[in-house]
Amino acid sequence: MPSCCEFFCELLIAILFPPLGVCLRHGCCSVESCICLLLTILGYVPGIIYAFYAIVFVDRDEYFDEYGRPLYYSSA
Q1: Rounded CA gap, 63 and 76, in Å?
Q2: Residue 30 burial (CB < 10 Å; 0-12/13-18/19+)?
Q3: pLDDT (tens digit, 9 = 90+) per residue, 2-56?
Q4: CB-neighbour burial class of residue 50 (10 A; exposed 0-12, middle 13-18, buried 19+)
Q5: The pTM is what?
Q6: What does the alpha-carbon distance between residue 24 and residue 11 come to, in Å, rounded to a whole number?
Q7: What is the pLDDT of residues 23-33, one digit of tens each?
Q8: CA distance 32 to 5
């Protein structure tokens, strides 16, 4: 969980250049970064909206272990 200062800086960077803010939080080759880059190319405002969503609401730590490998849950 990032500190308040890191969180504020990511949001500030997301206003200036949305894909960079998402890249700092989720990594450069993540799905979130690619979607944000595409939305920013199509329109600046959709890129900012998605960047805020990806930074504030998407928590990738829940889906990956400490080494970045995806966690698989079985229904058994």
Answers
A1: 18
A2: middle
A3: 678 888 888 899 899 999 988 888 888 888 899 999 999 999 999 999 999 888 8
A4: buried
A5: 0.72
A6: 10
A7: 888 888 888 89
A8: 22
